[in-house]
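Input chain follows. Return structure tokens only.
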Amino acid sequence: MNKLNPVKITSDLIKCQSVTPNDDGAIEVITLLLLDAGFKCQTIRRNGIINLFARWGIAENGLTFCFNGHSDVVPPGLVESWGKDPFSAVEENGLLFGRGSADMKSAIGAFISAAVNYITENKPNGSIVIAITGDEEGEAKDGTVAILDWMKKNNEKIDHCLVGEPTSRESLGDTIKIGRRGSLTAKITALGIQGHVAYPEKAINPLPALTELLLKLQGRPLDKGNTFFDPSSFAITSIDTGNPSNNVIPEKGEATINIRFNDLHSDISLTCWLKENITKIAEKTGVKMELELKVSARPFISKPGDFADIIAKSVQAQTKTFPSISTSGGTSDARFIQEYCPVVEFGLVGKTMHQIDEHVEIKQIMDLSTIYYKILKSYFSKLGKN
């Protein structure tokens, strides 16, 4: 078959208005390309989300290389603020514009092109899996998690995984990621007694207690980081009373905080830390406090080894620069995959992701596909059973 063009694939995907949870034909575009190349494809649906698991080759014959990506995108925002239609895939001055061009339809196009061209020209002993989710930008409950649940039920294995997130900062290949910090969100509710501001002795104002707690929590750094991780961070993201009157002491105050934590902590240790401080302030002030927690990710790391080395050296072979190894940034679906196998993230420059007039350099899409091809070739020659 003819060589696939990663820019053409990316453009076709951008034209699908796949804002989570809508698919708008994106998975079908990918499925048709992979079926034509000899992949066996399984659509996995859960709670209205469409995902894809595709395998080329036989897992029992050798190692399985997996690529994970997401076809869903964030909303474009005010369309009239865009210089180009966010879903028309306009090419101009060497740039490809469109929602999802940076995050991360270009990576999907680049890998599909690389994988199909690779298996057309080579016959590796082993297997290639392409797992695409339609729920990464949303709650991420019915996307990669659903694929992994299906894999477990059907005894589908993978040995190593590359996630195509836009990890590069300034230039293609300057950064790959081998882990991520965890994320804990806490909602703290302080309950007092409502009253008139002229008679504070008849009320219990929850706000001084709440602000004292917040100041105490952010009063000192959680840690200084370590070899692989940046310091943990603490951020107050919301404070609210819902009180429209300036002559009423409110009954309730609420605050939301987010902690991005490294492997010097766990969600359990941070929960104990929060509860300990809340108890002290509550006992001191007489204000009742309630705590609601949501842990969306735990810290993980795939320590440098053969797989990360193959990716880094493949990047260097194309860009002439050895990438930095990082665990920075927000969460990604790598946090789910790391429970199954070593995982590394590598993709385009993410400067414009989620922005108005999101775009990428067309040359970088081509270069990324070349790097992905080199990764596959090196993987099966060095780790596989050729």
